[in-house]
Amino acid sequence: MIHSAVLVRPPRRDSDDNIQPVYTEERALEGAIRIRCHHFLFVTLRCADIRRLYDVFATVKHLACVGSLEQLYAFDYRLDTADDVKAVEYDAHAEFRRMGVGVTGGVGQHWRVSEINREFQLCATYPPVVAVPARISDTTLTYAARYRSKARLPVLSYLHLNGASMTRSSQPMVGLKQARSVQDEKLVEAIVATSEPTGMVPRFRSERNNIIIDARPTTNAVVNRAIGAGSENMDHYRQCRKVYLGIDNIHVMRDALNRLADAAVDAADVSATAIDLGHAEPAGMMARIQSSRSSWLSHLQNILVGVKTIVEAIDAGHHVLVHCSDGWDRTAQLTSLAQLCLDPYYRTIDGFAVLVEKEWVSFGHQFTQRNGHLGHPDRFTVIRAGRKRVPEHSEETEDIDCDDVETESAEDGAQSGSSIFGRFATRAFRGVQSRISSAIQTASDNLDDIDYADPFFSEYPELQPDYVRPVDPSTRASAQQKRGFRLGRTKHDRETSPVFQQFLDCVYQLWVQHPTMFEFNERFLLDLFYHGHAAQFGTFLGNNMQERAAIKMQKRTQRVWSVVGHDPQLYRNAVYLGDEAKREQRVILPEPRFVQYWAAMFSCHDPAFAKCIEPTALGELTVETDSNDPTVRAEPDKLTVKPDPNKLTTLTDSDLALSSNVWSMDA
Checking DSSP bridges between strand 240-244 and strand 210-214, what pairing results, if any? Predict the structure, then answer.
């Protein structure tokens, strides 16, 4: 559960021989270990014995950073449950039957179940069993997979009662030469034809009612052509139109969450200091949150706008194909949230478990990389007392990922020319320049540490800062033996992002807007968020099913759903309408203009926090389109929602009776 930790080295008094620094007990208490947990618990540890402080920090780092999944607690944990405890077991064949796939005379009669990926030979990150159009052979699937990134070809995600389907894939490998695949085009055409009585699209039909959803901003998709990827050329998909949703990539989302976390802990530090000095507690929590420019709610709104677009299209009987870059982050968010709105089954406790297992676990969401289960040594840093804590975010987007390139806004792009690639080059240069400046500043802040070596670094060499070599305290000349500093973070650290957390946050927004339509309560979502990082169960470990099968995850670990089955009443929503909800309103729609911070998830007791809606977020509800393609445009009037106050729930003090998000402990 530990996200990061900072060892604040206390001030030192030089000894008489001017060689060894001496830590007094009074100064030692000025040092501390500041720990940030994934579930927004912030702990500060202080100790009069500086050696113990270093020892605790080294131990925490050693336990939090492991070398493999098999070293995690999930492989040792055993849950004592009765034999009659009900635990959800996901069965792909049973779920396809429930949706009607392959049922003669039903809406799914033109679909079939294929086991072409049983040994993960077609796609390493797809489940062994997939559903595809019945008239598409496995040979065609093999060729179509070559045209999609990571071989993630379009397959069925959800089949609605009216015959409309939602499929998912990764981006096509179009490239600068505008490559195409006849097999991929035939596959998409067959998907569109599954709702026709004959299973064939009429030859002279010209309507473009079906939608290809590209979750990325338009510029991202265009720039990705430079690395051989891109987005569909709609001249070859004549029964479809394309929508760009403008949802940012994993790096932007990580930066947004870090800004929010930094603002929260800064506000808590200011509040604690004021209380210690006997001053009135400042009411600056929301001011700091809003000034942090995290745009967390704006990102949630963009996702919900995309979900609303998908739900309305499928409910109207149109087919939707959803993808982003690799199809395991934003795609999973959109497909799972859309199914939650379309099918009341997924709004039950058992149905939600099936939804998560199907759309996230089996379709290869990279839980280990995104949640950072193995830990990242770069997040455990050492600074001197009196230095300002280095924030987790930067002014620039931290990383440029060739799989999903972020570009400047139109305003910044105008300054560097109209070329998209020119704006990308400017972005990359500014990012590198920012990291160089940050590294130089860090080295400058610690120049005196080079002259006077810390004696405890000889006992804890793994804590030695990167900007200086371990030195021999017997001579000051050796202190000049410096090595170069590193720029940026490790690759694994750059891959972390709160993708699944964002999904749960969006589910919470739907739960608040439609409180009687969900069988589960808020605690159910909070426990899933906690266990997503706790590594206590094997459900959220591993990056794909092939990786889990290699280490026999299913047999060696417990499933998180067994906890739900142990005490189902703990997670049951008291105002759920049950079957009456299915009859009254089968399909629900998100209300993107009404979103709020999830106070319980952020462990915040400030009432204003739970009610806050970012004022700048309402101006960002746009759907980006490609002027050259047939597209769907979001109409602002249709996005204006006036929520019914009677339908909205209010969190009580008992609902927020969680542990304080900031703890301080002196030893």
Answer: parallel
β strands within 328-448, DSSP E = 380-384
8 A C-beta contact, residue 40 and residue 264: yes
Residues 601/526, Cβ–Cβ less than 8 Å: yes
Select from 452, 453, 448 the least CA-distant residue to 464.
453
User: In the prediction, which pLDDT does 660 show?
Assistant: 40
Give pLDDT tens digits for 593-631: 889 889 888 877 666 665 555 544 433 333 444 444 444
Cα 29-30-34 angle, rounded to 5 deg: 95
Calpha distance 116→153 (Å, rounded): 12
Higher-confidence residue: 304 or 395?
A: 304
- Catalytic residue from among 324, 341, 604, 612: 324
Strands 240-244 and 662-666: unpaired
**Over residues 160-167, mean pLDDT:** 95
Complete DSSP assignment for 227-273:
GT-----GGG-TTEEEEE-----HHHHHHHHHHHHHHHHHHHHHHHH
Would you say 308 and 589 are in contact if contact means Cβ atoms under 8 Å apart?
A: yes
Strand 111-114 and strand 130-133: the pairing is: antiparallel
Q: What angle do CA 348, 352, 353 make, to 5 degrees?
A: 120
For residue 23, give the DSSP letter: -
Which amino acid would we find at residue 96? Answer: F
**Maximum pairwise Cα distance, the chain:** 94
For the ranges 50-64, 185-199, 439-453, 572-586, the lowest mean pLDDT is seen at 439-453
- Asked if 412 contacts 431 with a C-beta cutoff of 8 angstroms, the reply is no
Q: How far apart are CA 261 and CA 617, in angstroms?
A: 19
pLDDT at 9: 80
**Two structure tokens written together for 513:** 């807007």
* C-alpha dihedral (309, 400, 124, 540), degrees to nearest 10: -70
Q: How far apart are CA 1 and CA 532, in angstroms?
A: 9
DSSP structural state of residue 175: T
Task: Judge whether 303 and 333 are in contact, CB under 8 Å.
Answer: yes
User: What does the pLDDT read at residue 199?
Assistant: 67
User: What pLDDT is stored for residue 612 in this prediction?
Assistant: 55
Distances (CA, A) of 46 to 37, 190, 578: 17, 65, 51
Beta-strand pair 320-323/165-168 = parallel
Q: How many Å apart are CA 367 and CA 610, to the nearest integer?
A: 28
Measure the CA–CA gap between 344 and 417, rounded to whole angstroms: 50
- Cα–Cα distances (Å) from 238 to 162, 232, 513, 598, in that order, read 22, 11, 37, 42
Q: Which pLDDT belongs to residue 344?
A: 94
Q: 18 vs 21, 38, 58, 334, CA distance in Å?
A: 7, 42, 27, 63
Q: What is the CA radius of gyration of the chain?
A: 27
Q: Does residue 506 carry a catalytic annotation?
A: no
> How many other C-beta atoms can be found within 10 angstroms of the C-beta atom of residue 3?
23
Mean pLDDT score, 83-96: 81
**Residue 230 falls in which region: left (phi positive, over 0), alpha (psi -120 to 50) or beta:** left
